[in-house]
Amino acid sequence: MKTLPEKYYLTHFYELLDYLAQTSWDLLSEDQRAKINAFKSLSQDAQCLLVRVVNRKRDFVCADELVYEEIKDFNQAYLELKRFDWLCHADSRLALASLVSELNKTQLIALAKAHALSDTPVKSAKKALWLDYILAQLDNLEPSSEILQPYFSSPFKSDLAYFLFLFFGRLGGGLPQFSMRDLGVMHTQNDREQGNAHFEHQEEALSAYLYCNLCFDLKELAPESVLKLAKCVSAGEYPKPVGQLAQIKYDHLCHKLANMVADGHAALSESLLTLSAHPKAQEKYIRLLYSKGDHQRCKNLIEQLLDAPGDEKLLFFAEDFYRLKFTQTRTSLLTDMLRDSGEPLALDEAYVGYVEQGLVELFGRSGTTAYHCENRLWRSLFCLSFWYELFEDPRNAFSNEFERTPKCIKDNSFYQVFESEIEQRLNAFCDNAQLLNWLVKQASEKFGSHNRLMYWHPDGLAQLFEFAKYAPIDAVCKHLRAMSKDFNGLKDGYPDLMICQNGVKFIEVKAPGDSLRRNQLITIKKLVESGFDVAIQTVQWQVQPAQPYVIVDIETTGGKKEHDKITEIAMIKVVNGQIVEKWHSLINPQRRIPRYITELTGIDNEMVNGAPIFSEVIDDIDAFSKDAIFVAHNVNFDFGFIKAEFARLERYFKRAKLCTVQLGRKWIPGHASYSLGKICQDLNIPLQGHHRALNDAMATVELFNLINEKRLMGGDKEKEQDAER
């Protein structure tokens, strides 16, 4: 494992200062610039000590805790920092309150005893009670007391917080991330030179820092502090936000505050909603106006949004709400889309959680190839279409090696900055061949390049290339243009499936209990506007006799898939209750079979000596079980072992699965035991040579067919009940 050099943290701090000097010097105050220059003139021991102090999570540190071998003379370094006001003790009432709040209960009790304070809480009282008591006694505390004197803080800590904000462009970044990079724990683009500053000027940076902190602190505020902040914001006592980030945070702050004070302060909440451009705040305000009976004002506001929409989601809401409240149409867009979705398709309940896979297999059995693509297809298309502009053009340079999202994507200005290049590229996509050639060229050159917007995977690229062959080129260009103008609004929500047959069709799958989110509907609507064929396909859980099932049984060297191995596999394919194909083989586990396993199964070391090892049959197992539901008695045992064997060979094994133990308890209730031997005996199912894979699999086939008959009957009863309702 990598180790860090002795003074790694000082090196990292200087790396931060170098970044500020190169990109953000004008974003600092004169005092901060002077502090940086003064820091550089300190002795190295003093620099090390100061960086250690300001990098602590707490504001106050105890001298006894600052024992570092690389600081040769701690006392001298401390005195040097104290002399030049880099360190200070809790001399004021406010600082004393901050220090006391960081002490533990034992220290609070000791503090009360040292100052001979009266009427103290009992020792068993909770820390919160002791803290409240000590805070009420601040005037009686002596800052130079033995307990408080070792603690000190640095005013430079607040400067460091601002420096880190300028470096990362957000709150939450810290020097430990430099350490994680050096240790190889965090991946960065370490060959990237320092690039752009996150902010254009100091006023923008300070405004963003203010509102980011107000939003961050909001969740920790007591109710009375929340109310006070809400009143201050509503009264305009804070400066107007400057710059995009500050505006976003201000809108978020007003929206959050409006929600937090809504109970009991309705007028204040409404005032805050009117100040916020957050889409949810505007939506809530419109709904509030309508509920209050102010219909005309509500209608006027919606019409303003329809004329000049600033957000796709808000536009969708405005259109839908207007249709529902101010026209004769009483159905929503969602209702209309679902109404046109056609009859639901039936899938076995094994596909709960894997509904897309179930439909892909269902379409495949009818000769139609469907791809499960969702957002991956569109993100890959966008990135490969505009790779240079996104990741290599100097105008879109990253601020530093830690950044993963291009600046123009973060602030949604991609089309504004690169309009000429985007239009030129789209004009070059004059037909499908041109589009495909460009995507193949970009993928071959950039494959594996690290970025945050797309995931490299051969299957994903294969889907993209199929799309490029058949998609209507005008629709492709139109939607790429829409993504360029509002990537943040169209980066997700794409339909689940794609079918490339006589063109391209997208299908959004809606299983029972699923709801389509607004961002999905907005994206679907935009795809339709671009010229794509999009449908919503509903699904119902129902036993399908024509569904292929593969009934599996295995024997192993033991019960732990992590280190035991498979010795025998049997697979039987069943369609419409009939066995259509079998596959069976002993497997050489490449280790000795324990005696107790041989006694149980009859499989000994000599029997498997000439058998194939798992890697020699993995393709057969994969092919035989593909596009079928995996069924076994105690399915997680059999499935888990096979999946583990695939994983050892760096292969992924995923199938929808059913367990005849669980299904048996549900559909054939009342048996004392559901072990395969006992349940087969109770149901008169032949089972000879128990604990041999093929024999157990054949018995499980009969058990499963019996269960499926019950499942089919149960489904028919549910249909009859639904019809009666």
UniProtKB/TrEMBL annotation:
The keyword Manganese applies. Signal peptide: none annotated. Coiled coil: none annotated. GO terms for molecular function: 5'-3' exonuclease activity; 5'-flap endonuclease activity; DNA-directed DNA polymerase activity; flap-structured DNA binding; metal ion binding; phosphodiesterase I activity. GO terms for biological process: DNA replication; interstrand cross-link repair. Pfam families: FAN1_HTH, RNase_T, VRR_NUC. The keyword Magnesium applies. Residues 548-713 form the Exonuclease domain. Its cofactor is Mn(2+); Mg(2+). It catalyses: DNA(n) + a 2'-deoxyribonucleoside 5'-triphosphate = DNA(n+1) + diphosphate; Hydrolytically removes 5'-nucleotides successively from the 3'-hydroxy termini of 3'-hydroxy-terminated oligonucleotides. Keywords: Exonuclease, Hydrolase, Magnesium, Manganese, Metal-binding, Nuclease. CDD domains: DEDDh (cd06127). Residues 430-541 form the VRR-NUC domain. Belongs to the FAN1 family. DNA polymerase III is a complex, multichain enzyme responsible for most of the replicative synthesis in bacteria. The epsilon subunit contain the editing function and is a proofreading 3'-5' exonuclease. DNA polymerase III contains a core (composed of alpha, epsilon and theta chains) that associates with a tau subunit. This core dimerizes to form the POLIII' complex. PolIII' associates with the gamma complex (composed of gamma, delta, delta', psi and chi chains) and with the beta chain to form the complete DNA polymerase III complex. This is Uncharacterized protein. It comes from Pseudoalteromonas luteoviolacea CPMOR-1.
